[in-house]
Specification:
Layout lengths: L4 H20 L13 H17 L4 H18 L2 H16 L6 H16 L5 H16 L3 H18 L4 H18 L2 H18 L2 H8 L5 H5 L3 H13 L8 H16 L3 H17 L6 H19 L4 H20 L5
Length: 334
């Protein structure tokens, strides 16, 4: 499928900046912030703010701003800005999947070393969030859960105002609990964290806890009606423009609701309808997203096949088998 021009430009910028980082390396000459012009620091901080905001919404655009932020930070040499940018590089690498594990862990070692050189707790707490996120993206769910829990405790105890970073730790802890099969703990945490998010008016946290893997807490309680109403409420507050990571979480959640009800045809029709937008969003370059979406479409196709017979049933089962083959070809242990 051809990509829209804006997506092609984003992908091109990403490739150029990735090459620039690889050739430049991560070396730098340390300088105090007082030695650097305020304009340069502001430029870095703007790139950082945009990268952070987009990294779990429009992942490719977030990666472009992050790489720009990393290059600028290394050039000026201010340790705090370098540490936070190096940490975000770890989950960015992990989006490529299990094959990126050696590079992601090497980047993690550099990021955690840099974080320890920075006064205060934020740098090490943020490095912990990125460690947990990366482990989850490459399918190492127990280490992911341990890292996310430790980072969340540090953020809440020592880093005032770091709510977004805490929400990321919660998101990947809940996702890890799902794949570890600890559904009782998933439901307990999702409910507790959702109340906190709604109380403080945290739109991002409220959306991710009512969609994606967090939404399964209501299916665990045998309550698909509430699951749907909570998801509807969450997405009513989210942008309808484009196809963001949150729309992927919505598609995943709605597929699960339909399949819980046995409505395979509805689930499959929605997947077919949303697939072009999903592809154009470039989210399918993230291995975890590819696995999840191929799995969703395969499950929907199999359930839809139950109500068919003859050639239609055979064609649907063959389509599901193709998605399963796509997953198998990636050769990922988990």
């Amino acid at each position: 499928m051809s990509l829209p021009r804006n997506a092609l430009w984003t992908l091109a910028f990403f490739i150029v900046l990735r090459i620039a980082v690889r050739f430049r390396g991560l070396g730098f000459t340390a300088r105090d912030a007082s030695e650097i012009s305020p304009a340069e620091l502001t430029r870095i901080d703007i790139c950082w703010s945009v990268a952070l905001g987009l990294s779990l919404t429009d992942t490719m655009s977030g990666a472009v701003f992050h790489l720009r932020c990393l290059l600028l930070s290394l050039r000026v040499g201010e340790r705090g800005r370098i540490a936070r940018a190096l940490s975000l590089q770890v989950p960015q690498l992990a989006t490529e999947g299990h094959a990126s594990r050696p590079r992601a862990l090497a980047a993690l070692a550099s990021a955690e070393h840099a974080a320890r050189e920075v006064p205060g707790s934020y740098a090490t707490a943020w490095a912990g969030v990125c460690r947990g996120t990366a482990h989850c993206l490459i399918g190492e769910f127990r280490p992911a859960l341990v890292a996310c829990d430790a980072a969340l405790a540090k953020l809440r105890g020592e880093c005032a105002g770091a709510h977004w970073e805490g929400s990321v730790a919660i998101q990947f802890a809940v996702q890890s609990l799902f794949y570890l099969g600890d559904l009782k703990e998933l439901a307990r945490r999702a409910s507790s964290h959702l109340r906190e998010a709604l109380d403080r008016g945290d739109l991002y946290a409220a959306v991710i806890l009512r969609s994606g893997h967090g939404s399964t807490s209501w299916l665990i309680a045998d309550d698909p009606a509430t699951c749907r109403s909570q998801l509807d409420a969450a997405m009513h507050e989210w942008s309808k423009a484009g196809f963001h990571l949150e729309h992927y979480y919505e598609l995943y959640a709605r597929t699960n609701i339909d399949l819980y009800r046995g409505a395979g045809r509805d689930a499959l029709a929605r997947a077919v309808d949303r697939w072009p937008a999903l592809t154009r969003s470039l989210l399918m370059r993230v291995q975890f997203v590819r696995f999840t979406m191929w799995g969703c479409r395969a499950r929907a196709t199999i359930v839809a096949a139950r109500s068919e017979s003859g050639p239609n049933r055979k064609a649907l089962l063959a389509a599901a088998a193709r998605d399963l083959q796509r997953i198998a070809r990636e050769r990922v242990p988990w």
